[in-house]
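Quick check before the chapter quiz. The format below is the same one you will see on the exam, so make sure you can read both the input and the output lines.
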Amino acid sequence: VQLVESGGGLVQPGGSLRLSCATSGFTFSWYAMSWYRHASGKERELVATISRGGTTTNYADSLKGRFTISRDNAKNTVYLQMNSLKFEDTAVYYCAVRLGGLDYWGQGTQVTVSS
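Here is the expected output.
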């Protein structure tokens, strides 16, 4: 199982980024996918989850309206569109999948919001 995040970087407040997570080693379309983030000095936080078909999404309450999770089952990839970014969105962002009771994680991609 491999999950590889990309798309992070340095962005000004109010800007946007689109993260991608390319996966392999499992049948992507069978599983819900999630994005988490971990900011320095804080606990890891669930950002968003998307059902295997993409029809159901859930978000952390504080992020609703700014972040959008989506997936392309033909490309085995899950995305996180982040708009109106704030300083407090600075963190390492991870995609994750639970397979057979085990959680698999990517290596993460750094998002830094700074002026």
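If your answer matched, good. Residues 86 and 92 are 14 Å apart (CA to CA).
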